[in-house]
């Protein structure tokens, strides 16, 4: 394994454990040349699932692409990288459970939005605006309205509990 910092190919494993989802092994490595540490993941190589794009094209499923989209949506938001990795693992698990060869990109997009909605509503709206290709402010308002109603209901139930 080449060091991402100095590109030397000699490292030692400092720590090794199963990832949160149990489908990968997380390894902390130390480069013997420069002494820096980095994390690698070892996964089972399965028959590749292909994503069917909106235009009918197909490309290999790539968890890094999902992670990059999540990172963009969560930029400057209080969401940890560990949380994002867990979301990607859950999405990957759903995809491999429900599909053998091909998965529609819409399925993945809905999973990402569902996960983001639970974690950070601002990130959710950011992702939804790109994923659903909002054309104007009215589409933003339509997406935010249910979130506002839910927040108001939550606040109202919290206020009534305080008075009791």
Description:
- With 164 residues, the chain is α+β, with helices and mostly antiparallel strands.
- It has 2 domains: 1-45; 46-144, no CATH class.
- 50% of the residues lie in helices and 20% in strands.
- It has a 3-stranded antiparallel β-sheet, with no helix packed on it. It has a 3-stranded mixed β-sheet with strand order 5-4-6.
- A hairpin with a 5-residue loop joins β1 (11-18) and β2.
- The termini are far apart.
Architecture blueprint of SSEs:
Layout: E1 11-18, E2 24-31, E3 37-43, E4 50-52, E5 58-60, H1 63-73, H2 81-98, E6 102-104, H3 105-119, H4 121-131, H5 137-163
Parallel strand pairs: 4-6
Antiparallel strand pairs: 1-2, 2-3, 4-5
Helix pairs in contact: 1-2, 1-4, 2-3, 3-4, 4-5
What key attributes describe this structure?
about 160 residues, alpha+beta, 3-stranded mixed sheet, 5 helices, about 50% helix
């Amino acid at each position: 394994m080449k060091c991402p910092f100095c590109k030397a190919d000699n490292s030692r494993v400092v720590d090794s454990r199963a990832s949160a989802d149990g489908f990968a092994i997380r390894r902390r490595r130390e480069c013997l040349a420069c002494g820096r540490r980095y994390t690698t993941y070892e996964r089972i190589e399965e028959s590749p699932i292909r994503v069917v794009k909106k235009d009918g094209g197909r490309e290999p499923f790539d968890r890094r692409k999902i992670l990059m989209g999540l990172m963009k949506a969560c930029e400057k938001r209080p969401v940890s990288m560990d949380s994002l990795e867990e979301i990607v693992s859950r999405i990957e698990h759903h995809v491999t459970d429900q599909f053998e060869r091909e998965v529609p990109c819409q399925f993945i997009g809905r999973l990402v939005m569902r996960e983001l909605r639970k974690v950070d509503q601002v990130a959710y709206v950011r992702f939804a605006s790109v994923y659903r290709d909002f054309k104007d402010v009215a589409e933003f308002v339509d997406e935010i309205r249910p979130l506002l109603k839910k927040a108001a209901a939550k606040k109202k139930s919290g206020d009534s509990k305080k008075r009791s």
